[in-house]
Amino acid sequence: MLFRRSAKEVKSPTEYLKEYVDVLEDTCVISETEISNVSMTVCKKWQDKNNCTLVAVCNVLEHYAGMYDFIPSDMDERYKVVHEQAVACGYDGIHGVSVFKNRKLVNRVIHAFCKKGFFKAKSRYFPSKKRVIKVLDAGQPLLLSIGSGYYFDHTVTVYGYVTCTDRTTGKSYVLLKVADGWHDTCRYIPWTHTGAHHITCMTLLVNL
Predict the structure, then answer these.
(1) How do strand 142-146 and strand 200-207 relate by DSSP bridges?
(2) Do residues 97 and 83 touch, judged by C-beta distance below 8 A?
(3) Strands 172-179 and 200-207
(4) pTM for the full model?
(5) Positive or negative CA dihedral for 131, 137, 140, 141?
(6) Bridge partners, 163 (sequence order)
(7) 143-201 tens-digit pLDDT
(8) ∠178-182-184 over CA atoms, to 5°?
């Protein structure tokens, strides 16, 4: 059941909770935390295969493009640089970037855009659910590479979360808000107290 709960596409937090956790929509109080200026660009914009990590990097960098003029605002120009650096990390247009090279890829991309060190990438394997929420609360979007469930062997951009609190029990359930690279609208990943299980790697930018 734990893996089943994480093995489907989630378009609506309340519908998911109703189906899997027996929480009804009319008893749910919903609050949202969302990081602005994160792109929802999809993988099929380019012809490359298994380019989810490349697209996730581009989508995360959208958040920083308004802060640092060395990051191209044009997505095609940005993707070209990311693609070049991904090739240096073993990407061949068919096989995806290894999760163990996420940090290396992002660092190479930042270095390609700007030689000066404003920030660097940091990866954490098997991060706790609380740690991921803490990063989002700090206003930092992140890459999440997933090794289980609906997004098995896929990387998404996480840019917030939804908290659904059951008025009858007081229990809160959290679902992550993601740009999944397959759709140009928000999808959700069941997270805290939802019964779902995930194997993940979190990659984010940290200030120097």
Answers:
(1) antiparallel
(2) no
(3) unpaired
(4) 0.92
(5) positive
(6) 31, 174
(7) 999 998 899 999 999 999 999 998 888 899 999 999 999 999 999 999 987 767 788 99
(8) 70
Tell which residue, 154, 190, 203, 141, has the closest CA to residue 23.
190
3-state secondary structure of 12: coil
Alpha-carbon separation of residue 98 from 27, 134, 153, 154, 175 (angstroms) = 42, 25, 10, 10, 26
**What are 16's two structure tokens?**
């998911």
Q: What are phi and psi of 48, to 5 degrees?
A: -60, 150
Alpha-carbon distances, residue 80 vs 87, 104, 111, 124 (angstroms): 11, 17, 14, 26
Tell me the C-alpha distance between 174 and 194, whole Å.
7
- In degrees and rounded to multiples of 5, residue 103 shows phi and psi of -60, -45
For residue 188, the surrounding DSSP H or E stretch is strand 187-190
Query: Which two three-digit tokens encode residue 43?
Result: 């993988």
Give the tens place of pLDDT for each residue, 66-87.
Answer: 888 899 999 999 999 999 999 9
DSSP annotation string for 121-144: EEEEES--HHHHHHHHHTT--EEE
The answer to whether 173 and 17 are in contact (CB under 8 A) is: yes
Per-residue CA distances from 145 to 58, 61, 150 (Å)? 15, 16, 12
User: What token pair was written down for 73?
Assistant: 């605002």
Q: How far apart are CA 63 and CA 197, in angstroms?
A: 28
| DSSP per-residue codes, 88-117 | HTT--SSSPPPGGGHHHHHHHHHHHH-SS-
